[in-house]
Write a structure and sequence with these properties.
With 222 residues, this protein is an alpha/beta fold. It has six helices and 13 strands. A six-stranded mixed beta sheet has the order 2-1-3-6-12-13, with helices on both faces. The chain is globular. 48% of the residues are buried. The mean pLDDT is 97. Bound molecules: ribulose-5-phosphate. InterPro entries: NagB/RpiA_transferase-like, Ribose5P_isomerase_typA_subgr, Ribose5P_isomerase_type_A. Its EC number is 5.3.1.6. It is an enzyme of class 5 (isomerase). It catalyses: aldehydo-D-ribose 5-phosphate = D-ribulose 5-phosphate.
């Protein structure tokens, strides 16, 4: 099986999970990226089970609406029982790096509201220690060089993702060269740098349920 087929497999498993576990008439949280896109497509046949979705990006909003799924503003919603999204890396403690698609801040906000964060990934995303995938950090544009200097002091090699502007009007620094053995501590440290909006580390609020696909099927880890 190739990676696209593995993404399809886990996206369908997530839709099945939603069909079995989401309360009738609820609002779902929906993430961003190629795996999340396949999940959105897999939601179409069960869309009558929920009233709508909160999207973690404009791209996902457009895709959901294209399938006739209502997209709500998060400020209109008090409860999200399940949030489904992909990840760039996940470690054995269910800490994740996200933000390869530059949607990390909205993803973190939706995850903060959600009761359960269901992460969907193919087996290539499972790692022993986070950091091989460069850690995305969303930064206020005028603070870019200041934040880059601070990230260098932490031992990272930040590189500006030139040409990318987030849905919030900010820029992304991708931090190479990290070996993240204490994800929650690093998340707090980076989030406290003035000018940082958020980092792509999901550790203080990590993954609740990981669905991970391999040629032998979809494994559930929690
Ligand atoms: C977007 C994300 C994505 O979930 C992450 O990059 C994984 O993407 P894909 O499913 O395309 O591999 O965090 O900001």
């Amino acid at each position: 099986m190739n990676q696209d087929q593995l993404k399809q497999l886990v996206a369908q498993a997530a839709a099945d999970y939603v069909a079995a576990n989401a309360p009738e008439g609820c609002v779902l949280g929906v993430g961003t990226g190629s795996t999340a896109n396949l999940f959105i497509d897999a939601l179409a046949p069960i869309k009558s089970r929920f009233v709508g979705a909160v999207a973690s990006s404009e791209a996902s909003r457009v895709r959901l609406e294209g399938l006739g799924i209502r997209v709500l503003d998060l400020n209109e919603v008090t409860e999200i029982p399940i949030y489904v999204d992909g990840a760039d890396e996940v470690d054995p403690g269910l800490n994740a790096i996200k933000g390869g698609g530059a949607a990390l801040t909205r993803e973190k906000i939706v995850a903060a509201v959600a009761r359960e964060f269901v992460c969907i990934a193919d087996a290539s995303k499972k790692v022993g220690v986070l950091g091989k995938f460069p850690l995305p950090v969303e930064v206020i544009p005028m603070a870019r060089e200041h934040v880059a200097r601070e990230l260098r002091r932490l031992g990272g090699d930040p590189r500006w993702r030139e040409g990318v502007v987030t849905d919030n009007g900010n820029v992304i620094l991708d931090v190479h060269g990290l070996s993240i053995t204490d994800p929650a501590a690093l998340e707090s440290t980076i989030d406290h740098i003035t000018g940082v909006v958020t980092s792509g580390l999901f550790a203080r609020r990590g993954v609740d349920l990981l669905l991970i696909s391999s040629p032998s099927g979809v494994e559930r880890l929690s």
